[in-house]
Amino acid sequence: MSTDTYGVITRARITKTLLVEITASPAGITCEWIGERPPKLNDRQMGRYRAARNKAIAELAERMGGTGLLLETGSITTGRKLFVFEPGNSVKEQPMPDIVTDGYREH
Prior knowledge:
- A hairpin with a 2-residue loop joins strand 3 and strand 4.
- This protein is α+β, with helices and mostly antiparallel strands.
- 16% of the residues are buried.
- It has 1 helix and 9 strands, in the order E-E-E-E-H-E-E-E-E-E.
- It has one domain (2-106).
- The termini are far apart.
- The chain has one helix at 43-64, and strands spanning 2-3, 8-15, 18-25, 28-35, 68-72, 81-86, 90-94, 99-101, 104-106.
């Protein structure tokens, strides 16, 4: 992991031929995939990606001395997840509350 004026940069090997570079800044996160990315990551590959992503966001929260939030939208089968990153590099998965917009409730 390295840092620059833009934010925190984390690189992780997902497969033998695939790397991801994750940049986390106060404005958000970006991911650059290096190599041939499969249409869908398997559970092991997704775990490696999430570990790198969480590491970058936790480090950014630590540097800023604040709390970071990440909403993972998921799918019908995986559902939505809310992650809270506290200073000290701790991450907690929180229950995702229902979101009410324009009188409609999303589940």
